[in-house]
Design a protein that fits this description.
Layout: H1 21-28, H2 45-50, H3 58-68, H4 72-77, H5 85-95, H6 106-124, H7 127-137, H8 148-160, H9 163-181, H10 194-199, H11 203-213, H12 222-241
Helix pairs in contact: 1-12, 5-6, 6-8, 6-11, 6-12, 8-9, 9-11, 9-12
Length: 252
């Protein structure tokens, strides 16, 4: 599979190798830790020579993402070239019934995807769990942790940007990784995230993981593309905003 030029994936060339660890893992390994039968990345010469310096073969990683989003027969007709990342992203959003505008930027569509997962999780959490999450992330403008007001406060914090938004993004990505990849993140090594990440092993983590489990992810391809897209969304936020989210929700 050859990499096709894709402006929405070019930023991967500027990420550190350690930032790409989780993305590479979800492309190469299944939930039980066995190698995916359909992956091609580990057979590439550059990968074998340079692993684990992922940044030096970022284009091979990008090509793998494009290939997982493509129909195999159609890929052959395209001379071994996969589909653009935005096609993979919108396919995942359609699968998860995310409300988005097809003409919006990739960053905005990714934001809508993350917001959908966050909202589903928040709706399943008890007032006490919401209170614990607010305390851990620094969401302070909540007077009543029952009903839609509390959820709206977390949604506003997510779109506002800053470190709180980055924490919520990490929570989302970690929950997806645990369910679909069988392990949590390694990218959340920031000491400031320690308290938040500790919450994910308790009741709050169970609620978030349970919410994700309730979402239908049938199909081998989606077990690759869904976590890969969510990993890319988190990496893009780290790259563009230094852990901060773009302001404002997408208009849909």
């Amino acid at each position: 599979m050859r990499y096709r030029h894709d402006p929405d994936l070019e930023f991967l060339s500027q990420m550190k190798s350690e930032d790409l660890n989780d993305l590479v893992h979800c492309l190469v390994y299944d939930r039980d830790g066995s190698a995916r039968l359909t992956e091609e990345l580990t057979s590439r010469q550059r990968y074998q020579q340079l692993y684990p310096d992922h940044q030096k073969y970022w284009d091979l990683i990008a090509a793998e993402i494009q290939s997982f989003g493509a129909n195999t027969f159609a890929t052959i007709l395209r001379s071994g070239v996969g589909v653009p990342y935005k096609t993979v992203l919108t396919d995942v959003c359609d699968k998860l019934k995310v409300n988005y505008n097809r003409s919006a930027s990739v960053e905005q569509i990714e934001g809508n995807l993350l917001m959908k997962i966050l909202t589903v999780a928040l709706e399943r959490m008890s007032p006490q769990e919401l209170k614990e999450l607010a305390a851990a992330t620094g969401v302070t403008n909540v007077n009543d942790f029952r009903g839609e007001a509390a959820i709206a406060a977390f949604q506003a914090a997510f779109w506002m940007g800053g470190f709180i938004s980055y924490q919520l993004t990490v929570i989302i990505v970690n929950a997806v990784a645990k369910v679909l990849l069988g392990r949590g993140l390694t990218l959340a090594g920031n000491m400031a995230l320690t308290r938040t990440m500790a919450l994910l092993t308790g009741p709050v983590g169970w609620a978030i993981t349970g919410a994700w489990t309730a979402i239908d992810v049938a199909g081998a391809a989606y077990r690759v593309t869904i976590p890969a897209v969510i990993q890319i969304a988190a990496l893009r936020r780290k790259h563009l905003y230094g852990g901060q989210a773009p302001p404002g929700p997408a208009s849909v």
